[in-house]
């Protein structure tokens, strides 16, 4: 089965940068659209960004536009979320997800596979 493993989370100061990685195995990586979501304590899981199989079509949530960039490297079966100008409100568990079809990528139900998440903590 398809497996996704996030990495790169940690503690960073406000204004700093962090790059999250999503390693995909058990399937044909280039067949999947990728998405990132995050969830803070006491809040619902929210859409962050998505890209299609080529990495050309991209969709980024309003709260992170101009700060976060989604990308992928199909030669390494890995997706990335580059996070710049981090704010304390970005603190959350970040999840990578994979979907077989490009649809409404903001909906969690679009995605068929999910990683276990990686913690990102932004200090003041």
Uncertain residue ranges: none
Tell me the span between the first and last alpha carbons: 40 Å
The rounded Rg comes to 13 Å
User: Main sheet?
Assistant: 7 strands, mixed
Mean pLDDT: 95
The proportion of residues in beta strands is over 45%
Total strand segments: 11
Classify the secondary structure makeup into a structural class: mainly beta
Q: Which H/E pattern describes the elements?
A: EEEEEEEEEEE
Write the layout of secondary structure elements.
Elements: E1 3-7, E2 10-13, E3 18-25, E4 33-39, E5 46-51, E6 58-60, E7 68-73, E8 78-83, E9 92-99, E10 113-114, E11 118-123
Written overview of the protein:
- By secondary structure, this protein is an all-beta fold.
- It is 0% helix and 49% strand.
- It contains no helices and eleven strands.
- The chain has strands at residues 3-7, 10-13, 18-25, 33-39, 46-51, 58-60, 68-73, 78-83, 92-99, 113-114, 118-123.
- The strands form two sheets. Strands 2, 4, 5, 6, 9, 10 and 11 form a seven-stranded mixed β-sheet that branches. It has a four-stranded antiparallel β-sheet with strand order 1-3-8-7, with no helix packed on it.
- The radius of gyration is 13 Å and the shape is globular.
- The protein starts with a strand and ends with a strand.
- The mean pLDDT is 95.
């Amino acid at each position: 089965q398809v497996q996704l493993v996030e990495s790169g989370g940690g503690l960073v100061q406000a204004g700093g940068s962090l790059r999250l990685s999503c390693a995909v195995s058990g399937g044909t990586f280039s067949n999947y659209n990728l998405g990132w979501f995050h969830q803070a304590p006491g809040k619902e899981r929210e859409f962050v960004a998505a890209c299609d199989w080529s990495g050309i079509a991209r969709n980024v949530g309003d709260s992170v536009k101009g700060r976060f960039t989604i990308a992928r490297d199909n030669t390494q079966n890995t997706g990335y979320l580059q996070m710049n100008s981090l704010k304390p409100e970005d603190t959350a568990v970040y999840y990578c997800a994979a979907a077989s079809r490009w649809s409404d990528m903001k909906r969690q139900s679009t995605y068929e596979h999910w990683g276990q998440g990686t913690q990102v903590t932004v200090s003041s």
